[in-house]
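Here is an idea for our session: we take a single protein and study its fold together. To get us started, please write out a protein record for me. Once you have written the record down, we can walk along the chain together.
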Amino acid sequence: MSDFTLYDIETAPANSKPLLQKSIDGFGMIPGLHAVMAEAPALLDGYQNLHRLFQTTSFDAEELTVVWLSINVEHACHYCVPAHTGIAHMMKVDGAIIDALRDETPLPTAKLEALRTFTLAVTRERGNVSEEQLNAFYEAGYGQQQVLEIILGLAQKVMSNYVNHIAKTPVDKPFQKFAWEKAQ
């Protein structure tokens, strides 16, 4: 356990209280990640905004899940993999897609596999992808807009994954049944 504070609506810094209220309104609770981020109101605000913006991209529920979970698994985030597993189930994403992402096994369609492959390339290469990687992504049916939207999703996930690594954020009770560890 880390010594980072898990804030609630009463104990949070003043500028985080309305942000935590947004969490309660949206999730019916304050996710542990938000409780930790409340220490830095600007971080919590930025994270919430990136999350909201990423949900407005051209990606459907399956594609959002592919981007989120691909990055979470790559970063071995003990908190975000279970959380986004639960979120994916709430979004009615096929369980086979969720399991393939968690287990790093092939996805059921070539297009979703191309999305995962390109998302991982952007993540691993810190944006320094090759022309071949771009062309393979385009040939799968995606375009420049989706390249840029992956970067938005990655920015959101870097914030959450890194906070969770450092703070050792405990997994929220509703997501504990989706506990996960990266395969060796």
Notes: The two ends are 23 Å apart (CA to CA). Residues 144-167 form the longest helix (24 residues). Residues 82 and 175 are 6 Å apart (CA to CA). The chain has one domain: 14-178.
